[in-house]
Write a structure and sequence with these properties.
Layout lengths: L1 H60 L3 H47 L15
Helix pairs in contact: 1-2
Length: about 130
């Protein structure tokens, strides 16, 4: 009897945990969809702009369909890799380099030598 009650309580606890995970996922899902809309569609458009002329030119020249698709796939893969590495570099710059540079500028402005220290340079006499 106690084993059955214990098993039922464990199942309810497991279901409660699953609902908690799904509930937190449902809270984050609109943010993920907004990011896909914000970043995904422009990325697909860039890939289309890069890939479509290449496919058309290769098809007009008369390459076999498999060669056209292979070359277009390679070029699209390289373009996607370049965009991904560029995004990584941009994130590194924004979150690491830029704050360090701003702190250095503020510190050099606050603690650096003053350009106008009150002394006048000696005037040249003719």
């Amino acid at each position: 009897m106690w084993a059955i009650i214990k098993a039922l309580l464990m199942k309810f606890g497991l279901l409660r945990g699953i609902f908690a995970v799904l509930g937190s996922l449902a809270a984050v899902l609109p943010i993920a969809l907004a990011l896909i809309k914000l970043l995904g569609w422009p990325l697909l458009i860039v890939m289309l702009v890069l890939g479509l002329p290449l496919v058309l030119v290769l098809a007009i020249i008369g390459f076999p369909l498999i060669a056209v698709l292979a070359i277009a796939g390679i070029v699209m893969g390289l373009a996607f890799a370049a965009l991904t590495l560029g995004a990584i570099a941009l994130k590194f710059f924004l979150f690491v380099v830029l704050p360090i540079w701003v702190m250095w500028k503020v510190a050099s402005w606050a603690f650096g030598k003053r350009r106008d220290s009150g002394e006048r340079p000696a005037e040249a006499t003719s």
